[in-house]
Amino acid sequence: MKPYFEIYSASAGSGKTFKLTSKYLHKLLTDKTNDCFKKILALTFTNKACEEMKTRIIGSLSEFSNQQMGKSSIELFKVIKQTTGLKTREIQMKSEKVLQNLLHNYSFFQISTIDSFNHSLIKSFSNELNIISDFQVILDPEEITDESIENLMNTLSLNKTLSKLLVDFSYEKLKNGKTWDIRYDLRELSSTLHNENYAEFINYVKLSDVQEFVELKKKLEKLEKKIKKRIKLSVNECNKFIDKLGLKMKFNRATFLEFLKKAENLDIQNIKTESIEKLFLNNRLFKKAEYSHIERKHTQQKLLNYFHKISKKIWGLREKKALIKSIVPISVLNIIREEIQAIQLQRNEILISDFNSIICNEIKDQPAPIIYEKVGSKIDHFFIDEFQDTSKLQWSNIVPLISHTLESCDLTGLPGSLILFGDVKQSLYRWRGADPDNFISLLTDQNPFRIDKKIERLSANYRSEEEIVKFNNSLFSHLSKQFEHSQNQLVYKDLLQDFKKKDNGYVSIEFSNKKEKSNTENYFLERTLSIINGAIGRGFIYSDQCVLVRNRKEQKLITEHLVLNNIPCISGESLLISSSEKVQLLLNLLKLKININNLVARKEILLFFLKQNKQEDEFLFFQNGLKSEISVFFEKTLKIEYEDFTNLSISEFLRQFLDNVNIDYHQDSYVQFFLNELHGFLKKKAGGIHSFLQFFNKYEKKLFVSAKNSDNSVTVLTIHKAKGLEFPLIIYPFADSKTHVRSQKKIHYSFNIEGERKELLIDYNKGCSNFGESGKLIYNMIQKQEELDNVNVLYVALTRAISELYVICTAPKLPSMDSHNAMLWSFVKQLENFTVDKIKYSWGKKTKHVQKNKGSRKPNQLPTEFRRIIKPNFYMPILEKEVMIGDLFHQFMSKIEYSHHFNKAKTDFLMDEKCDRDQALNVIKMAQKVLNHKELKRYFSKKYNVICEKEIYTADNKILIPDRIIFSQNNKTTLIDYKTGLPRNSDINQVISYASSLRNMGFDVEKTLLVYVGTQIKIVQA
């Protein structure tokens, strides 16, 4: 047998997951061993996709084993039987053995995200990289970037060159009518440090220092002055020519004279050269009666030469201004990068965005056997899903590893393999590093390996009904001919899917002719509502329906309109933690904790309770609530003693308050998430409530709870979030998305100055195409990318529907490829039934929707005992297993001042229905180890005074929460802090800060103990 390399180009709905699962199962069931999964690495891009893939494989093995199969598994079983040649009984027995082996060796079941695989790779090479193996992963670089910028600003006095540069930049901003604060500019540019698209430029910046940029700025400013003089000279020459021939009164319009005036005044931002170019091209520069044809043509040519000469200089000036504008933020980019690295080193943290570059620079060139040895297993078979979303660096990092596999055999002498799945048409993530050209090149003439590749296009559509498939075939076949760039044409050229669901389906495209924006918005909202209600009348339920949007603004508009009309819906906006009124109530309580005289917070609290319980006299209710003593306010309104507010820890107080007002926070995921965020912040950051409120205010738009799939609600999603999903009915309003979006986009621009090649990042706009050959090349490249990317967005939107698809947009002025509505207009314009006044086009018929009996369990949905195993184990949210165990352990230990408290705490813990029993038993065992430990048990005797998890307010308004403080009779103090994870440097720093604060308060701290609670108890004295 030869090694093989297979590529599957899988259009939307073409059964890619089915094919991938069957290929994976084929390997498991045909291998001589029962642990082939140890030699397979399957990579994808999200934890959700990993969980789904694991669920599908384990679910299939489970159903094959007991021969109780759903429809999907029956089809899969038939394929496995056909491709393997195995008999039913053989498949059943093999599946049972493989499943048993897999569950006993689950850690070797390697289906993971690329980031997760990279994470394990970096941990394996931690010694070689000089990093501590238990480093923390930073998912969001924003906080550490802001901190590094603040550190930079605070040390400016130490660097006069840099200080002058930044001050001059601030003045320049003020002159242009902008805020003097440069933090925004630095923050915006610093985002490039974490984006692979700018990796080449960042590598260039690493080799430069501030002084080099200062010198470059001087040179550019010198050139800028020269160009300004040349523009004025050229304008002066042109004006003399006009005066000599007496042409001022003979121009058709004053457009050309205005151009000269603006150029002379160097008002270059308001010069539009395209409109003047058209005057020359259309011979409309002069009034027709003023000149003979020959004289007009000769004079016009002379003026055209002047125009081109001046325009070229204007574009040269614009280029220099763009370069000068970018220099100051870029000059400090390397300093910010170094500051970020220093912070990471100090805290033992690594940005997830750095994974690829670390592997590229430090690991990629290691011999494959060494990498496999470090990882712990030899990989013989690779599966990569969603390949169109890989970045250049990700692909180049893994190619050497795959090459070794394809060029060698496993222990039994069998060859290795690589199977890729992807669809260029569904590549949406170029903005964060994804490079669809990786896949395009493999589908054409590229092959990084020495073996032949086999390409198969999955052409059947198993998702959508007939009319939807036929519509999309026609639409995208039409659009493929409209692309300006030939490579983009090839992507959509062969998109003609077969349909498996015949005789049904409905598609509707509506073009609003409303002129005013507000009228258009209202039309979109009302039509969306009407479609949803109409579908309900035909047998659809709310959860069958999904509204797709492009951005959060549209998502918010749709969600608010649906809620206003009593339509239940789930959206990103509705899942924000801050959208919960109960969370807002808790936030206002925290504000009162900082300032008991905060009447705004009091008012908001009163409003909450007013909504819960109508008052006969609302005015009196507010008056009493706002004017009453704080103790009365707490007792009457909040149903809790003011003393509890001041004496209990924040977490204890909030939980007691919620119990008193009958808010079940265990059943409210918003409140639960909020409490965990608060507890985690106070523990990790050693900051106060004020710091937490600042943190929450800054990141509230990024804090979400997970949606529950069981909710019967309309889903409102951005198109990017909908990728990979399907719904019986899809509505796409606001379908006017522009192809070329230039705001905040930076381009890596190379230029020559005094014989040297220099590079900068400049703002991207249409004018860049006039910045010489370099600018034109970059502009054309980005135009090509954006053209494909926006058609891809439309493709993903229109291929989510199973039964019905609705698109609502405005009628464009002209058909084009510039926006989704213009693309759709160009399509309907070539239909036989097209008329200019027609606003609605439809295909197929609306029908009654029959709800399928979904049963108690979906196909391949695992029984509970399997689902517990499969939860993704990388970057788990705060409520996942490890962190939850740690939180539960701390809660349990906070109830035990002395050893005799253990039995009561244990009983209460096990009686708590809201606590998972297995986790509770685990926590109890951990606590017993601590209480029985020979070095620790004396600290639980009654001869000491003890405080458990009480807040300490420091002089600088921070809150510290040590786990246990023990006061002996000789006035000595011992401090104990529990840790349920691996040891970290930050643990020691944390307890040292606790001890320091206690000493500042006058306590004699004798011992500071870190107690690591795991399979063994480990005690570290700080």
If you had to describe this structure to a student in words, what would you say it looks like?
The chain is α/β, with parallel strands linked by helices. It has 5 domains: 4-130 and 354-458, P-loop containing nucleotide triphosphate hydrolases (Rossmann fold); 136-347; 469-573 and 712-738 and 791-844, P-loop containing nucleotide triphosphate hydrolases (Rossmann fold); 577-702; 880-1021, Lambda Exonuclease, Chain A (Alpha-Beta Complex), CATH 3.90.320.10. Helices cover 51% and strands 14% of the residues. Helix 1 (16-30) crosses helix 3 (71-84). The longest helix has 39 residues, at 293-331.
Residues in helices, as a percent range? 40-55%
Structural class given helices, strands, pairing?
alpha/beta
Determine the strand fraction and express it as a percent band: 5-15%
Whole-number mean pLDDT: 85
Number of helices: 39
Quick one: CATH superfamily of the largest domain?
A: P-loop containing nucleotide triphosphate hydrolases
The domain count comes to 5
Uncertain runs are 855-860, 864-869, 871-880
CATH hierarchy class name of the largest domain: Alpha Beta
Q: Any idea what the CATH architecture of the largest domain is? A: 3-Layer(aba) Sandwich
Strand order of the largest sheet: 13-14-12-15-18-11-19
Q: How would a textbook summarize the main sheet?
A: 7 strands, mixed
CATH names the topology of the largest domain as Rossmann fold
Cα radius of gyration in angstroms: 33 Å
What gross morphology would you assign?
globular
Distance between the termini: 60 Å
